[in-house]
Amino acid sequence: MARIVGGLATSHVPLIGVAMAERRQDDPDWKPFFDAYRPARAWLEAARPDTAIVVYNDHGLNFFLDKLPTFAVGAAPLYGNADEGWGIPVLPPYRGDPAFSWHLIESLIDDEFDLTTCQEMLVDHGFTVPMRLFWGDRAQTAVTTVPLSINTVQHPLPSPRRCYRLGQALGRAVASCAEDRRVVVIGAGGLSHQLDGRRAGFINRAFDRMCLERLADDPEWFLSMTPRDLIRRAGTQGVELLCWLAMRGALGDRVRRVHAHYQAPVSNTGAGLLVLDPVAGRAAG
Ligand code: DHB
Ligand code: FE
């Protein structure tokens, strides 16, 4: 049977992608940040996932404001990258997993999540930066991938509760796959940041640190919030936390927090990292 072996969440700041491309992980300015990912990589070595489901948000590379699905799942054999600005290099494509994608899609649609299905899909820094943070130069070969994008750009946005429930349905979808497969779920984005408007540069360190605590043991705390509440606390782009909530929903009722790290600012963002183990015996949903 397929099973979720754990959850990871990380920020996806483009500047981190540039630093990795320039191999600056040991520069004094960057070393503390990249060293914080060592425990996550060691945990991944032990967890041995075959597949990564990456819950992220597209920033205009694949979807634009003219057509922007609330939830979209990739079902492509390969996921290419493209020049999206920011100075991030174009990387080789990531391996898809069409049969597993279609299993997830069928289960999610059966579970009343009316998704957009993408047999071609470009992935932007929201996907590529986390992949490279966790697998480095092996990101294109170490695991197959299923991108799941949540609209965090064009209002109206889905609520925290809806995204958490999507994650719960994703947990059920993985559990209903008969094939032996080890799955890691990644939530990419956040933590607090605002790139535009009057509050440009806004970071809420107290809220971010609270997220790193509560997401593990009290995720329901977030579920009464509206997207607007989240934006008020975390900034217009801090709403990317929705991707973390979907990841958390997939892991079931109880989790163990293996590792957490916070650094602010990284570029314009409060940068968070979270590694969660599911606690056996508890089904999602
Ligand atoms: C930054 C953060 C993001 O999440 C993003 O998508 C783009 C830029 C930043 O901090 O610069
Ligand atoms: Fe972003």
Give the structural class.
Answer: alpha/beta
Sequence stretches where pLDDT stays below 50 over 5 or more residues: none
The name of the CATH architecture is: 3-Layer(aba) Sandwich
- The name of the CATH superfamily reads LigB-like
Q: And the CATH topology?
A: Protocatechuate 4,5-dioxygenase, Chain B
Query: Into which percent range does the helicity of residues fall?
Result: 25-40%
Query: Oligomeric state of the chains?
Result: single chain
Count of separate DSSP helical elements: 9
Distance between the termini: 18 Å
Report the average pLDDT across residues. Answer: 96
Total number of β-strand segments? 10
The top-level CATH class is Alpha Beta
The portion of residues forming beta strands comes to 15-25%
The rounded Rg comes to 17 Å
Strand order of the largest sheet: 6-3-7-2-8-1-10-9
Structural key phrases:
alpha/beta, 33% helix, 285 residues, binds fe (iii) ion, eight-stranded mixed beta sheet, Protocatechuate 4,5-dioxygenase, Chain B, two-stranded antiparallel ribbon, binds 3,4-dihydroxybenzoic acid
Report on the architecture of this protein.
The protein contains nine helices and ten strands. It is of the alpha/beta class. The chain has a single domain, classed as LigB-like (Protocatechuate 4,5-dioxygenase, Chain B), CATH 3.40.830.10. The strands form two sheets. An eight-stranded mixed β-sheet has the order 6-3-7-2-8-1-10-9, with helices on both faces. A two-stranded antiparallel sheet has the order 4-5. The longest helix has 16 residues. The radius of gyration is 17 Å and the shape is globular. The model has no long low-confidence stretch (mean pLDDT about 95). The site of 3,4-dihydroxybenzoic acid has 11 residues, from helix 1.
